């Protein structure tokens, strides 16, 4: 194997809890909300699927079904889908819906999984190309930079920048071309069988991880090193 492609949300990083997300926005807007009401609103937002990177909607409103299906094909569609879901929940100030969307795009709203840094570092030390292939509606590069992981990524392929979303093979093809890698020499790592599994159509090997809170998933990425042989051979001297 000469390259590894990673999904972003639920694979390398995890979004903060819905309650933390709402609490941060309320604090910044200086909008008071009793604890019981905050907990209720946070749960309602989670059920609605209003937090990008969080839970999917339990029941998708019919009027949002169209935009939801293509939400990752542009920044405008992504915002419309998620703010539309957020507005299904009553909040003290209507401006909070846009503030919640803005919050989720900030590096402080995301935490890397514990094994993300060591796995990415080891891949770099062994000269294995790393790409991030994400269905997303905004630029996640600042998240990687803020958490010190950008130095290990050779290419970012983001759906909204190409107008196509996983599992469409075209998105994976862009990443393979950027890394100069062949499909049969590449592993795709992700948490979604429906989306990330699309890489298999090109001949890539696919490794799935569970989309769990950071504290509950300390080492699910480590098997990737075995898949590419990096755990069994010394690092390249010029890159160590």
From TrEMBL:
This protein's record includes keyword Nucleotide-binding: no
InterPro entries in the cross-refs: HAD-like_sf, HAD-SF_hydro_IA, HAD_sf
Keyword Membrane: no
GO MF: hydrolase activity
Segments passing through the bilayer: none
One Pfam match: Hydrolase
Record's keyword terms, sorted: Hydrolase
PANTHER family in UniProt: HALOACID DEHALOGENASE-LIKE HYDROLASE (HAD) SUPERFAMILY PROTEIN (PTHR46649:SF4), PTHR46649
NCBIfam families recorded: HAD-SF-IA-v1, HAD-SF-IA-v3
Protein known as: HAD-IA family hydrolase
Source organism of this protein record: Streptomyces hyaluromycini
Classification of source organism: Bacteria, Bacillati, Actinomycetota, Actinomycetes, Kitasatosporales
